[in-house]
Amino acid sequence: MNITIVNFKGGVGKSMIAHQLITGFGFCGFEIDPYGSLSDRLPESVERIDIQQKNIEKPKKETIFDFGGFDDIKLDQAIGYSDLIIIPFIPTLETIQGTVDTLVRVASANKPILMVPNMSQKENDIGDAKFVFEDTLGFEVEMFPIPMSVALQTAINENRSIGELSKQGGIKAYAYKKGAQLINDLHAKIREYENI
């Protein structure tokens, strides 16, 4: 299964999701983001694609395409290889327009789209965003909210999967269990799109 993670708005959690899927579930990665650090953090698993490069090779293993906040021909190639498009966003007015632009751009590919409201705090904000997205697209979109989580940020800072951190024992493990369950649930949701 291949997944494209994209939003033209930066700072919405694209690399965090990619990092946790790669470290926790064995995906490989292509980082298509000149400002990204995923390939530096995970050099054995993630290959950086130069912004000048015109083509992406078809992946031989399950792959995450972590796409930076820009649009070019490589996005079409990544989506073409992918079974699912994940669009993380922060459910605030400031990030909705960039997310709408991304949705409009990728919707024509006719691939399944999973919206991931990241650092979500209010259910109403997610509902409002869902209304805007569906009104713009004319079809229903599925949401998988990820609430604000210090544990997930710690996992990224320590360059480890949240699942690994949840198994270390003691009081820290308790703090990571909720985040680990969330990422496991996200992975299970992603697998529902396999072979659609």
Describe the model.
With 196 residues, this protein is α/β, with parallel strands linked by helices. The protein has a single domain, classed as P-loop containing nucleotide triphosphate hydrolases (Rossmann fold, 3-Layer(aba) Sandwich). The chain has helices at residues 14-25, 38-41, 73-81, 93-107, 123-137, 150-157, 162-166, 170-191; strands at 2-5, 28-32, 46-48, 63-67, 84-89, 113-120, 142-143, 146-147. Strand 5 (84-89), helix 4 (93-107) and strand 6 (113-120) form a beta-alpha-beta unit.
Summary of the model, kept short:
It is built from eight helices and eight strands, in the order βαβαββαβαβαββααα.
Biggest beta-sheet profile: 8 strands, parallel
Separate helix tally: 8
Terminus-to-terminus distance? 11 Å
Task: Return the structural class.
Answer: alpha/beta
Shape, principal axes of CA atoms: globular
CATH topology: Rossmann fold
Query: In CATH's first tier, which class applies?
Result: Alpha Beta
**How many strands appear in the DSSP assignment?**
8
Compute the CA-based radius of gyration.
16 Å
Query: What is the H/E string?
Result: EHEHEEHEHEHEEHHH
Organism: Sulfuricurvum kujiense (strain ATCC BAA-921 / DSM 16994 / JCM 11577 / YK-1)
Protein name: CobQ/CobB/MinD/ParA nucleotide binding domain-containing protein
InterPro entries: CobQ/CobB/MinD/ParA_Nub-bd_dom, P-loop_NTPase
Pfam families: CbiA (PF01656)
SSE layout and pairings?
Blueprint: E1 2-5, H1 14-25, E2 28-32, H2 38-41, E3 46-48, E4 63-67, H3 73-81, E5 84-89, H4 93-107, E6 113-120, H5 123-137, E7 142-143, E8 146-147, H6 150-157, H7 162-166, H8 170-191
Parallel strand pairs: 1-4, 1-5, 2-3, 2-4, 5-6, 6-7, 6-8
Helix pairs in contact: 4-5
